[in-house]
Structures
1.
Amino acid sequence: MKNRNITGIVVAVIYCVVLYVFLTDAPLVKLQIIRYGFMY
């Protein structure tokens, strides 16, 4: 249970960081993702 809780917290923190980056640098990040998506 402890390992599961720790992994859940780590995933939640990473998810929050990703959301924060998306909210702060939304246009640049979305453009880069779209460009890489079309390239691959």
2.
Amino acid sequence: MTSHRHDDTADVVALRQQLAMASEFRVPVPDTGVGGYAEVVVKRQLDGRGERWAVTDGAFSGLRAWVEGEGWRYISDVGRAVAYRHTRDEALAMAHQVAEIEAACYQAEVAANRPEVDEP
């Protein structure tokens, strides 16, 4: 029994070390049955204040961050201090909420652009 507990402790230590190396997490936008794949990307920034995280759209250029109460904003417009203001846990929780919002918005957009079918 003691050996098993030691193995669990070693596993937890190893997982924490691996987690500390992560620089981003990808949260899939739920598939609402209207097609396509999308994700919200949580990115880490290390600076003199320590480790901070942002909820982003993952773009290669023109990167946007989710700003609470405002939605997607270009990081170049709001600044890195506004974008990278969360702990890892806060950013991951927010990313899941944003993914749900994005799924609902996409589903509404698709529904609004569907051609109406005339009933016979």
